[in-house]
C-alpha cells in the first residue's frame, strides 16, 4: 500500500473504500486501514446494498459489524427504486459507482479505492479481447483513473485472490461468497472457468495476461498524452457549452489520434461517464472527413459544420426554447468577447442557457 500511494502521489487524508463483504474488498479495506493508521490517514468503508438478493441486507449488516469491530467508519448505501429486468449486471455496476460517487462528493472525499485484483485484470483483458477492443480497452483496469472528479484507485491489481484470502484467514476474518460469481449466464464467469485450462494447456497464466495489459497501458498513456496535446493546441472550448476545431485540422490528424480525440470530446461535451462505442465513433469520424458532411448526433452530442469548422454541442432537449434575439444581446452585453465572433445558432443557444441557469 505504501508504495502504491507514494508512486501515484496520493496524499489525501481520507480514503473511501467500496466493500461488499467479499474477500477482495474486505482484504482491501483492512489492508488500507493498517496502512492508514501508520500514515495518519483515515479510511471510510462504503457498502452498496443493491437489494437484489434476500441475503444482501444481512450481508451489509455483517460488514457494518465487522467494520465497527475494526474501528472503521462505515456507511450502507441502499439502491432504491425499480430495478431493470434486463441488463441487471451492468445496471447494478453503474448504480454501485453512482452511489459511491454521490457519497464521496457529498462528503468532500476525492479518492475511492476498489478491490480489483490480478485475476480481475486477466478476465477483463480476455473479456475485452472477445469484444474486439482496441488499445484503450485491452490496457485493462487502470490502477488509477478519474471519473467525474473522483479519483478511483485499485491498489490490489498485483495480488491474486488466493493471496487476499490467505490474508483474511490469517486475521480470522470471514467473507461472503457472492452467488453471482457462479452464474454461467455472465461472460466473465465463463472466462473465469476456462482460465485454469488456458494455463494448463497453453501456459497462459493470469499473470501473463495482466502483464500484457500493463504493456498496453503504457501505449495507452502515450496515446493519451498525444491526444491531450492536440486538444490543448487545436480545440477550442466554449464555456463548457461546446467545442470547435478546424475541419482542415481534423483531416490531418493521424487516424488513431483522431479516433481518441473525437471519443474524448464526445464524452466531455455529452457529459457521459463513458465514451460512445468505438464502431459508432469510427463511423462519425469517417462521415466528418467527407467534404459534404452536414451534421450528425452521437453520445448526447450534435456535430455540425459552420465557418469551415466542426462544432460539437450538447444535443438539444425537446423542451429547449428558441433563442430570442434579446436574450443573445443581453448575453453579449455581459460577455463582450463574443460580440464579433461568428458562432453557430445551437452553440449560442447553449451559451445563453448556461448563463441563465447560472444566474437563477
Explain what you see.
With 360 residues, the chain is an alpha/beta fold. The protein has two domains: 2-212, Rossmann fold (3-Layer(aba) Sandwich); 235-359, no CATH class. Helices cover 52% and strands 14% of the residues. The protein contains 14 helices and eleven strands. The chain has helices spanning 2-7, 23-39, 56-70, 88-106, 118-130, 135-138, 161-170, 187-202, 206-234, 247-252, 255-270, 278-288, 325-334, 345-359, and strands spanning 14-18, 42-49, 73-78, 111-113, 144-147, 150-153, 236-237, 243-246, 295-298, 301-306, 309-314. The chain has a six-stranded mixed sheet with strand order 3-2-1-4-6-5, sandwiched between helices. It has a five-stranded antiparallel sheet with strand order 7-8-11-10-9, with helices on both faces. Helix 2 (23-39) packs across helix 7, helix 5 packs across helix 8 and helix 9 (206-234) crosses helix 11. It is globular. The two termini are 46 Å apart.
Amino acid at each position: 500500500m505504501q508504495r502504491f500511494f507514494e508512486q501515484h502521489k496520493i496524499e489525501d487524508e481520507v480514503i473511501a473504500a467500496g466493500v461488499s463483504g467479499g474477500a477482495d474488498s474486505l482484504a482491501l479495506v483492512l489492508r488500507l486501514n493498517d496502512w492508514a493508521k501508520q500514515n495518519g490517514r483515515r479510511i471510510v468503508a462504503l457498502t452498496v446494498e443493491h437489494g437484489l438478493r434476500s441475503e444482501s441486507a444481512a450481508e451489509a449488516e455483517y460488514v457494518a459489524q465487522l467494520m465497527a469491530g475494526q474501528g472503521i467508519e462505515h456507511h450502507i448505501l441502499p439502491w432504491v427504486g425499480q430495478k431493470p429486468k434486463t441488463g441487471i449486471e451492468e445496471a447494478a455496476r453503474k448504480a454501485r459507482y453512482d452511489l459511491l460517487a454521490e457519497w464521496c462528493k457529498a462528503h468532500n472525499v476525492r479518492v475511492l479505492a476498489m478491490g480489483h485484483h490480478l485475476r480481475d485484470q486477466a478476465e477483463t483483458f480476455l473479456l475485452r479481447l472477445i469484444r474486439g477492443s482496441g488499445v484503450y480497452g485491452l490496457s485493462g483496469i487502470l490502477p488509477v483513473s478519474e471519473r467525474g472528479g473522483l479519483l478511483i484507485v485499485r491498489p490490489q491489481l498485483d495480488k491474486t485472490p488466493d493471496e487476499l484470502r490467505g490474508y483474511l484467514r490469517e486475521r480470522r476474518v470471514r467473507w461472503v461468497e457472492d452467488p453471482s460469481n457462479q452464474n454461467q449466464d455472465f461472460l466473465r464467469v465463463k472466462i473465469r472457468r476456462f482460465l485454469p485450462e488456458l494455463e494448463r494447456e497453453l501456459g497462459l497464466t493470469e499473470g501473463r495476461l495482466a502483464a500484457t495489459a500493463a504493456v498496453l497501458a503504457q501505449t495507452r498513456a502515450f496515446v493519451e498524452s498525444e491526444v491531450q496535446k492536440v486538444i490543448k493546441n487545436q480545440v477550442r472550448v466554449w464555456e463548457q457549452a461546446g467545442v470547435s476545431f478546424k475541419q482542415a485540422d481534423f483531416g490531418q490528424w493521424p487516424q488513431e489520434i483522431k479516433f481518441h480525440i473525437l471519443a474524448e470530446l464526445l464524452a466531455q461535451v455529452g457529459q457521459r461517464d463513458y465514451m460512445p462505442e468505438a464502431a459508432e465513433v469510427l463511423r462519425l469520424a469517417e462521415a466528418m472527413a467527407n467534404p459534404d458532411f452536414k451534421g450528425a448526433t452521437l453520445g448526447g452530442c450534435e456535430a455540425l459544420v459552420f465557418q469551415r469548422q466542426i462544432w460539437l454541442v450538447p444535443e438539444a432537449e425537446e423542451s429547449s426554447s428558441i433563442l430570442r434575439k434579446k436574450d443573445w444581446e443581453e448575453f453579449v452585453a455581459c460577455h463582450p468577447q463574443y460580440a464579433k465572433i461568428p458562432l453557430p445558432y445551437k452553440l449560442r443557444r447553449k451559451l445563453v442557457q448556461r448563463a441563465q441557469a447560472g444566474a437563477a
